[in-house]
What we know:
Blueprint: H1 12-42, H2 59-82, H3 85-104, H4 110-129, H5 133-139
Helix pairs in contact: 1-2, 1-4, 2-3, 3-4
Amino acid sequence: APDPTRGDGAGGGWAGGGSVFAGVLMLVSGILGILNGIAGIAKDDVYGRIGDYVYSFNLTTWGWIHLVIGILVALTGWGILKGSDWARGAGIGLAALYIVEYFMFLPYAPVWSVISIGIGVFVIWALASEPSRSATSRSGTTRPV
């Protein structure tokens, strides 16, 4: 009988549970991004103004960026939780975009940006280290529950 405490390779049990957690993190982060975007669009002075910054956009523009990426991240997180085939690859790509977004947003919200970058790194790790469903179905092994 298979040992449920051992993984089936490539990340094992940690990654299997990690992908569910990654889906939840993406869903919640996406919703927070949507709310952040709405706040930035509705009220242009939500964040303090900064001086000369290479990536300085109008705060309304940042609101739209957060809104669009937030919607995509939330939908992808939902897709990961539902087990959709497209969601894992999209999740890795969107998490990378999410990291870049919050790196550029660092001067406006430094603490939240660093936390968001950490979330993005975890999401990429969890989704990339879990064996694909097609690989496990071809090999005849089952994933631990």
